[in-house]
Design goal:
alpha/beta; ten-stranded mixed β-sheet; globular; 32% helix; 10 strands; 8 helices
């Protein structure tokens, strides 16, 4: 028999679940949320909630000289899409799509893209897609307004533009955080047969069963202890993935939303390393590295 406070591996709804802490899922004492569990799969529903804004502290400034380059490419709606690209050292059809937090495609996302690139041996093309069309902020209220005002069809178009930019032979894995965590999963659905994997850090899961059935890969979920992407929402996602015949491996960390972002004042270095080790291990397996 496992002891509650020791690392353990269990199965829930046929889904691999990791715990290394007591299963306490209440939000921080100073955060109150009144959201029902019937919300959809769009994080914009939280955008005006003071409690949600309160857990998104303005990111700390970082100075970073990026390895890659800014790129733009045609999109199906006639408006060019943008991104940050680090090309593989040798020609490769393997691609990692990176999805930003609600702040925009800032230096932190570029730095994290470079980290993935280097830890994947420079063998993978890494493309951070600009989901805000060039806008970046450090103001939580402004970020919330942007997230609430985005047009879903434009974001889908950006993903499709990135896929076309990568090419018809591209094998694409996806990773993102918060707003981008949800888009890592959506991207895995949109890219269809070209998708080979998705890592979603504390993002809102897709609830549409028919869409989940189209997934061409399994999913790795790295969640936080919070009252927005809550334990109930995560377990519902696990059940939906099981019903859709898809594999989900996930872990709920005893850490705050945004714990993996070094520019977040609530950054948890130890939990961040543990989550990253899971993410990079998953991606190496998907890319055969």
């Amino acid at each position: 028999m496992f002891k509650l406070f020791l690392p353990m591996l269990t199965t829930l709804f046929g889904v691999v679940v990791f715990f290394n802490h007591p299963p306490v899922f209440a939000p921080p004492k100073d955060i109150i949320s009144c959201h029902p569990l019937t919300i959809g799969d769009d994080m914009a529903v939280f955008a005006n909630d003071p409690a949600f804004i309160a857990i998104h502290l303005s990111p700390l400034a970082i100075k970073y000289k990026a390895q890659g380059e800014e790129v733009s490419f045609p999109a199906p709606d006639g408006k060019d899409a943008k991104g940050y690209l680090i090309k593989a050292k040798n020609k490769s059809d393997k691609w990692l799509f990176v999805y930003q937090e609600w702040w925009g495609l800032n230096d932190y996302i570029k730095k994290q893209s470079d980290i993935f690139y280097n830890d994947l041996g420079g063998k993978i093309n890494v493309l951070a897609l600009d989901m805000y069309d060039g806008k970046v902020t450090t103001d939580p209220k402004e970020a919330g307004q942007w997230m609430q005002s985005i047009v879903e069809s434009r974001l889908e178009t950006i993903v499709k533009a990135g896929t076309a930019f990568a090419g018809s032979k591209a094998k694409i894995a996806n990773v993102g955080w918060c707003f981008g965590g949800g888009w890592s999963l959506k991207s895995a659905i949109i890219t269809g047969k070209q998708n080979i994997g998705s890592v979603m850090y504390y993002g809102m899961p897709v609830k549409d069963m028919e869409k989940l059935k189209t997934l061409n890969s399994d999913v790795l979920g790295l969640f936080a202890t919070e009252n927005f992407i809550s334990k109930e929402i995560i377990e519902e996602f696990a059940a939906n993935m099981k019903s859709a015949g898809k594999e989900l491996t996930y872990k709920i960390f005893d850490a705050a939303h945004g714990f993996a972002n070094p520019s977040n004042p609530r950054h948890d270095e130890a939990k961040s390393k543990e989550a990253y080790d899971m993410a990079i291990g998953y991606l190496k397996k998907k890319f055969g590295i």
